[in-house]
Fold:
Amino acid sequence: MANLLLTTRCVRSCPYCFARKEMENSPEGDTLSWENLLYVVDFLEASSARHISLLGGEPTLHPDFVDIILYLMERRFHVTVFTSGIMSEKKLEEFSEHLTSIAIENLNFVVNVNNPEQTPASEKETEQLHKFLSVMGPWCAAGFNIYRTDFEIDFIFDLIGRFGMKRHVRFGLASPIPGVDNLYISPDDMKDVAARLYSYRPQFDRSRVSPGLDCGFPMCAFTDEQLGWLFRVSGPVRFGCGPAVDIMPDLSIYACFPLSTLHKRSVLEFNTLQEAADFYMDLNRKIRTELAGIFDECDSCRHREEGRCSGGGVCHLMNSFMDEAPVRLMEIESELAKSRLSSQP
Structure:
């Protein structure tokens, strides 16, 4: 599945944002054109890829957002939109008129929510989010990015029950950006995060809500008891870290947001989506040749060797290289040098 950015503008400024560097370095008003949209859709169709995720910034800020969704439906794509749910009354009216007739299995929204006390939002933003969920709740699953070990998620269960949202929550880890001083979960905090998440087991079980883990979680952060529960409520859990393949409005392409400054290419350089993914997977393998995983134990871990765990996120590995002597493979060092230069005042 490819991620297509409709715009680099956003309506929020989350303290953990791992897309900030890419957003700040993008041209002002950078918005996907219809010409580039058609190219990407044809590219994905030729790649036999029928799923697409729409990102930003805030993707609903694109002036033609509803028309883009309707066009993708006509082309028989399955669409997932990552959004804050914060939008104008006019935009929400468009949603109500044109999108509520689309089958839930064809259109999904992952609504990235923040704890209102730990990451405060304005009263207006909260009101806009609730209005959005009152219209689109059945199409929505909650997404929550963890950037502190004392995170609280009771409010999510309230939102799910109140607005009839899907009974699933996507959990992401705030990731380091090589060369940027941003908030993120360090490898030393991974077990605390796992334990904190498991402490909400009664709420998950009582509400019949399943947790889903985004990339970057290492398997060894969880105990056998915690893993057994995750498997029971969510099915097989993937402890991987692979290229998401993010496509920018100008058709530039990179592995994922945290690694957006590393080996950026253009979608025009590839014949298929798989070819692009293979390019970044090969780079990942070279990085992991230098360092197997985020822990010393990853080097001899059976689960990593057998493909059940990737050994944590590549962004952590690249971040750990930043302060080391330039002794890595030349292909890796050339990219690290760019991040070191960009981090200087």
The radius of gyration is 20 Å. The CA atoms of residues 3 and 246 lie 5 Å apart. The chain has 13 helices and ten strands. The chain has one domain: 2-342.
